[in-house]
């Protein structure tokens, strides 16, 4: 069984520094305190980034194995928060955008489906508390 531990340290005001198991660090803060000078991440938005990163890593790896590489790939994740506290994402939309000259639609769909349904643990965690929808967009170059 794999265990991960992170350490999060209060840096004053509403700022926290956290690490990950590889010891890289980032700053988290309350986004309502951001006047445009903050460098860091709001915790809930970081969850959406984690979802995109997890699924994106799967998809890129699968496409490489399928020999269906793309020129550009981006993931846009939109989360809707509940109105009441504790506010959490109850609806999440994950849009996969692929660009290239020779896009192999069937392989791209298979890679995304495998990530969404089988490999991405963050996606599975989100499904425990949110309605998650996905969509694939192909952009010919």
TrEMBL record:
Pfam families: OsmC
Classification via InterPro entries: KH_dom-like_a/b (IPR015946), OsmC/Ohr_fam (IPR003718), OsmC/Ohrsf (IPR036102)
Signal peptide: none
Name assigned to this protein: OsmC family protein
């Amino acid at each position: 069984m794999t265990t991960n531990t992170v350490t999060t340290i209060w840096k004053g005001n509403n700022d926290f520094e956290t690490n990950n198991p590889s010891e890289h660090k980032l700053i988290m803060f309350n986004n309502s305190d951001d006047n445009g000078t903050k460098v860091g991440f709001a915790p809930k938005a970081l969850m959406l980034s984690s979802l995109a990163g997890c699924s994106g890593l799967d998809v890129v790896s699968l496409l490489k194995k399928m020999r269906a590489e793309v020129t550009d790939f981006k993931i846009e994740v939109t989360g809707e928060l509940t109105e009441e506290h504790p506010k959490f994402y109850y609806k999440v939309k994950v849009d996969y955008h692929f660009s290239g000259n020779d896009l192999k639609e069937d392989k791209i769909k298979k890679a995304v489906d495998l990530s969404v349904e089988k490999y991405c643990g963050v996606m599975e965690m989100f499904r425990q508390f949110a309605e998650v929808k996905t969509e694939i967009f192909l952009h010919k170059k």
